[in-house]
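Incident log, support desk, overnight shift.

02:14 A customer reports that sequence design results differ from what the structure should imply. Their input is reproduced verbatim below. On-call engineer (initials T.W.) acknowledged and began investigating.
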């Protein structure tokens, strides 16, 4: 009831009250008084009250000293209409643009499996609405990775495949399509995050069934393993990886349009056969998972990637892949966690503050058109 009351109030009073609504959500979990001096137009929670800061508006966000590139009103309209069209395409079961302050009200209900924003291990909410860096609409989801990082230092966003508990299950002989935009700041790429955690930061975890743990046979994960800054992924709680040759050297850690050969303790920077993450540029990813029979070598993983405005190219293309080699009868993909999770990080080591952004998440039973912007 209180959510519908807020929506009604926002409609009468306008955007400012809407932003204050997001501030109220953050008050429930954010550390009081926390702010970054370079944030522009972000909702701030300062000692129990909400402020909208416009300080240093010429400087932009971290690692963007000149702010966001000017965008014409027409291109903004086109981007919004393009995302709206993709959201309303046949087969779409989840579409999130993080354009409404109400999106940032903490998730509740469902025994911990409801859609939405969840806190870090210390109870604070480090997922914020960023209206300055976005690909469409009014904002994006930004995670703040603080110094002395722990495994779950940011919290996460859960996107279920439907409305919990009535979910679409992607099991044997089904195909999952998912697309999202992502942006990484330079500290995520320059700092050696595997020195403060076991492997480095994750991007997402797709898994099932739920309720249940995320470390399952029916699972795939994108991770910047050992800080190579190459887009790679693994399945089934770590093994096998989505590499050629069953993950045994010589192998390709990216395949398709990119054919990135595994190198032991060598840099991948500058190798045009590898897609390496760029800093402070929006990236589009599009995954197609054609599940055959769990445990048999007949699943096809295909994943595409590109900087914003560039054509999508395959960085994973594995046919005849044995997905979920020890299946259970109820196994199926049902949910997705967006989060820069860092396995093994315990808060005892020093790291810089860093940021990861997400926008335009779409999950579907049908192919998803590539963004036009």
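02:41 Re-run completed on a clean worker. Output:
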């Amino acid at each position: 009831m209180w959510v519908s009351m807020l929506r009604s109030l926002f409609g009468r009073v306008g955007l400012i009250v809407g932003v204050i609504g997001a501030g109220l959500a953050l008050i429930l979990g954010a550390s009081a008084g926390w702010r970054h001096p370079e944030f522009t137009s972000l909702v701030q929670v300062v000692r129990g009250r909400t402020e909208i800061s416009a300080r240093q508006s010429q400087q932009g966000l971290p690692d963007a000293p000149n702010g966001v590139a000017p965008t014409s009103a027409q291109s903004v309209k086109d981007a919004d209409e393009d995302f709206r069209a993709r959201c309303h395409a046949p087969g779409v079961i989840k579409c999130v643009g993080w354009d409404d302050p109400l999106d940032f009200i903490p998730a509740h209900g469902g025994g911990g499996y409801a859609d939405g924003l969840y806190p870090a291990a210390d109870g604070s909410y480090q997922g914020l609405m960023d209206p300055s860096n976005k690909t469409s609409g009014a904002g994006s989801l930004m995670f703040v990775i603080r110094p002395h990082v722990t495994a779950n230092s940011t919290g996460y966003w859960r996107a279920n495949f439907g409305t919990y508990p009535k979910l679409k299950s992607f099991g044997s002989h089904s195909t999952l399509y998912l697309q999202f935009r992502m942006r990484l700041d330079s500290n995520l790429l320059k700092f050696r995050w595997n020195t403060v955690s076991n492997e480095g930061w994750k991007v997402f975890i797709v898994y099932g069934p739920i309720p249940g743990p995320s470390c399952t046979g029916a699972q795939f994960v994108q991770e910047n393993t050992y800080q190579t800054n190459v887009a790679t992924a693994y399945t089934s709680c770590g093994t096998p990886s989505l590499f050629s040759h069953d993950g045994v050297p010589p192998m390709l850690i990216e395949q398709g349009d990119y054919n990135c050969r595994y190198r032991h303790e060598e840099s991948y920077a500058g190798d045009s056969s590898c897609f390496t993450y760029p800093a402070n540029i929006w990236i589009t990813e599009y995954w197609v998972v054609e599940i055959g029979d769990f445990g048999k070598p007949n699943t096809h993983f295909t994943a595409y990637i590109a900087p914003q405005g560039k054509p999508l190219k395959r960085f994973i293309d594995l046919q005849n892949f044995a997905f979920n080699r020890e299946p259970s009868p109820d196994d199926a993909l049902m949910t997705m966690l967006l989060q820069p999770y860092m396995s093994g990080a315990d808060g005892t080591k020093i790291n810089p503050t860093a940021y990861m952004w997400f926008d335009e998440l779409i999950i579907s039973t049908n192919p998803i058109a590539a963004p036009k912007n």
